[in-house]
């Protein structure tokens, strides 16, 4: 028989992966499924759809609703098909008169305690209870409706995005189980027992005040309208849908945009998405309202100077103005006085076009991307050691990890859907090591064993990785066979001798790192001997003066212990932005053409010159910080910034602002009047991910399709804008659809050789490399060899950062982000996510606060050698004494006013994670000098913008 | 010569004043200058005679009871130390009391004779005889022995114990568990409590043997929270068993390990259902788990687990000690061995009656129970706890074995027998059954959660005469739905008493 897996279909219970196949007979049809599959799932494979309510295939069978009962030959009674595993030769009947009666009678009980308001119910048309009542043929409720019931239960509308209406609840526990099994938060429970059983967020609390993280898994799981999106309550059921990819973090979740016309009614996680398997977080699931926020830029605008109001103009005028001014600047200051920044928020195709514009139309290599400030050390470090600038695994690999080591990352906040997957694996028994100055939530995973926390001093990563490696090589924990077969022997011996030196021992490094030697030894042993050891890391690794060194140190450790090249292991950067992997892949670096091909290699350049029909500059261009320096020095005069808010996100804000002010031309292509746009001369209104076609590449190298669900508010998709600008500059670009851009990318970047939109549609997604060798992509890399042949271990000498505490600046500031807000907050601040985080605060250990007489909630001045700002303090034992923490989601917080110009020695990735500061109590409404200037400038620029918009309406 | 007097230290006796009686006897002896040793034994299970005071003589132990405080002086006056004396409470030799003499006490052979926590007493009466044999046998031989004995689970489901153990023995796992279901909650039952209070080492020995048989090194006793005395005595016994080397790293010198601890229950009837019990033992809400997977394969903390009732484990030492055949020789057809019945309700002589399977219910009620305490005729008997069917007098000749009961739609369950006289209203009793389910349902499955509530409502309508015929039909339909559709026996058996009440006492529904 023919069987298919359709993501749209709910198979009732999860698929099983056993290689042993079982054949059974259901309603006369032979079905063959893996051992361990439920009768319900097996039946669904044969399109025999047994009624069900409590079963759904995102979670394990529960067996409570009793609708899915069947008859099995040789067995007594009516077993539930969801909880009954298939057996060889089993003969099942899914329909009989007895079953029909039983199901109808069970449904009758349900409906005896359910409102009869189907026609006015928000779930009308999308209700499993309704469907099942129809399926079992319920025609009357003999109990009447005057018995005991829950119809007067009070709604909880506290969550901004969904309501909880217990009067509609059938107590199937799908929400409770989703919160536990899928999300791993365990915020929900059933309170009371028997008929009093009710879904609860805990004692005396509502959804928004509970431990709920608003991931939406419960709403997704609810078969009735008990948990229902407010947008559906307000608008009714969507009428069509489109599968697309989330534009928030680097997990790259697939979503179904459920639409009414061109209005998104809701975003529901797509079960067919290989990154998220139907799960979501509060951002992707709910925080899409920014796309139609009143602040959206919808008209191109130009001005001569940033001290004057804007003028709204046509697209043609704006593009021509921008092109003319670019050429004027080049004429005046030289070909290399201009550059462009590609956006890691835009699609692969769009970033490809911007770097191509810079290289082919502007004739230099001054192109860079925000990876500069996040994962550029990953690109460098992994390329040097493993030979490829990308993480080695797919996300699913973590489900085979025995020991998960997380370094400088906070997955449950920053990569929540993958964080949930990690938690699932931890609940299954994998061990956990966390190296982070803060006690991150992953360490508090419910129903998991106790992890090892290495609360390192900020800036001592390399000391730690060397100490870990020291333990591995001196305690005989190496995988000698792997090293002999896969690693360069000379490099290995040099590295081994280095880490074995006594000065790298945990004992001698303990005081530097701030973690007891025995704890470091325990962690090293656990990672090396667990079986499958997997390392996941984030910006806590890269954003240091030795960021690249640390990345190489991680790769060294993984190779020495043989934890590379199979599922369950690997070196995995958790990418921050939706398409930061992609923007890097697309040649957004000043020294690399698409596919990480060096621009100073004449052969490579020659191929591109043929493809692009121009001669290309051989000398690598400027990196972002160098563009700023050159701007201040008067050598760099014009910038084209695609969807990146460098004025808020880059370090040492005052330095960035000075650079932007010194430009003669700043072209900003963005969806909002962001901080950078306030310094601009041309605004080209961009489009959100909902308004365009293209692809994003997530942290596991997975290329996912982005599909347009609504027309661009300003009329153009971002690739069309760049194309228009190129054409106006006299360099022809003639793409009719992003698929044609991808075809071009495939022709120039070898690791994308076999990628096409047709193939993406066919496979759903592709993990590069995708070429003749790996025609359907490659989930796990380096299985047989490295792209550079043998893996290269690199000596990683620990060199302390120059940013050290002093009497004046006795504390270390480190920065990061939280679950509900995203990066510079441009999107999430324009949604109800502000309910959870309406301002950035300074987390400080109570001991440090007490020393400074600082109370919880009190405004404090944070001063560094670079600048100062004022935030409210939050006393938190998550911090270690001596270390403070803040986020940078709100521009007026000025987190980056404090951060310094220090950066990674190899890639110039800023040292965001270590800034020596002093914290002191402040007055109630105090503002720093910078904040006062910021507010004044912002007010002025908003007036200028308003003036431009008014002109239009006049 | 020292006068040895036995005053039970057991919940029933204590609730009837045994503690004060013991104190008064000691004082009276002091006053009279009598050299006395008071031994706090367990109860013999002849509850209508509690507090049952015994004196030791050369011919044996003579019983007096029920002893109230006012009786103490007169016992001394009568010279009760001689045993065979004239006194209104004199019962003669305890073991000759017909109620006790006519029983077949195998599991309860030691009950009430000894100081429950005295290891010497236990050993002197064949204690650890089974374990001593077990340590020299292979795991498979132990399981085979239990299989041959024909022992079936005494908690109510009557599943063959040996087969369950075989499943656990065959399962490969890093850790296996032995869990004792001591959450005795059926109305009118107390046999588990008696074992734990009056012969705790027997349970401990049974669990150790079970551990040896299946390869488990950790045992838990999930004890009903409302059994404080059992808790105290079990813990004392476990402590002494550790000290004496019966528990720990080197049980009975065998070099093998078994650890045991008592966990207090969560105070819910449903936690006596084995999968709820496991959830509760894991620290979660007591919610029923769907089966499969069977606890024997995927039980406590996901590991292979033997879950047996107290009485099942309690039967093990004698099976090992005396041999499988000895045990299997008791009983009737597929119901081998003995069952400790617990007589309660409206009866003259409540208490524990251990009998081989296959005797008549009628004899249990009249020969042992002595008919109703009220003197009125018996109208109904509920066997097997609150989920057991009500039997009417014309069914009293049914044989006491699993299959005979099953044939008439009834269950033996845990052996509880509750007797009602003619004043009972069986419609009210049927309503009570549904109400009990409303109270105690875990709420997981629909037929039980909602069905029980509707059951009460429908019975109320029937009693009120509201559309009676249609509602009786609806009630029968509901009962079938609960039986066929419920996840566990709670909802699946609640209709048994309801249906039996409807069938055998229809007149009560037409008032």
TrEMBL record, chain A:
Q: Which residues form the 4Fe-4S His(Cys)3-ligated-type domain?
A: 98-137
SUPFAM superfamilies reported for this sequence: 2Fe-2S ferredoxin-like, 4Fe-4S ferredoxins, ADC-like, Formate dehydrogenase/DMSO reductase, domains 1-3
Q: Which residue numbers delimit the 4Fe-4S ferredoxin-type domain?
A: 160-191, 203-232
**What PROSITE patterns does the annotation carry?**
2FE2S_FER_2, 4FE4S_FER_1, 4FE4S_FER_2, 4FE4S_HC3, 4FE4S_MOW_BIS_MGD, MOLYBDOPTERIN_PROK_3
Which InterPro entries did the record assign? Answer: 2Fe-2S_ferredoxin-like_sf, 2Fe-2S_ferredoxin-type, 4Fe4S_Fe-S-bd, 4Fe4S_Fe_S_CS, Asp_de-COase-like_dom_sf, Formate_Dh-H_N, Formate_DH_asu, MoPterin_dinucl-bd_dom
Concerning CDD domains, the annotation shows:
fer2, MopB_CT_Fdh-Nap-like, MopB_Formate-Dh-H
Q: Name one Pfam family in it.
A: Fer2_4
4Fe-4S Mo/W bis-MGD-type domain: which residues?
Answer: 239-295
Keyword tags: 2Fe-2S, 4Fe-4S, Iron, Iron-sulfur, Metal-binding, Oxidoreductase, Repeat
SMART domains recorded for this chain?
Molybdop_Fe4S4 (SM00926), NADH-G_4Fe-4S_3 (SM00929)
Q: Which stretches make up the 2Fe-2S ferredoxin-type domain?
A: 20-98
| Family (UniProt) | Belongs to the complex I 75 kDa subunit family.
Which protein are we looking at? Formate dehydrogenase subunit alpha
UniProtKB/TrEMBL annotation, chain B:
PROSITE patterns given for it? COMPLEX1_51K_1 (PS00644), COMPLEX1_51K_2 (PS00645)
Required cofactor names: FMN
Question: CDD domains attached here?
Answer: TRX_Fd_FDH_beta (cd03063)
Which segments constitute the NADH-ubiquinone oxidoreductase 51kDa subunit iron-sulphur binding domain?
427-472
Q: Supply the SUPFAM superfamilies for this chain.
A: Nqo1 FMN-binding domain-like (SSF142019), Nqo1 middle domain-like (SSF142984), Nqo1C-terminal domain-like (SSF140490)
Per the record, a Pfam family?
A: NADH_4Fe-4S
Q: Which UniProt keywords apply?
A: 4Fe-4S, Iron, Iron-sulfur, Metal-binding
Q: Which InterPro entries match?
A: NADH-UbQ_OxRdtase_51kDa_CS, Nuo51_FMN-bd, Nuo51_FMN-bd_sf, Nuop51_4Fe4S-bd, Nuop51_4Fe4S-bd_sf
Family in the record: Belongs to the complex I 51 kDa subunit family.
Please identify the protein, giving its name as recorded: NADH-quinone oxidoreductase subunit F
Organism the protein comes from: Zobellella aerophila
The top of its lineage is: Bacteria, Pseudomonadati, Pseudomonadota, Gammaproteobacteria, Aeromonadales
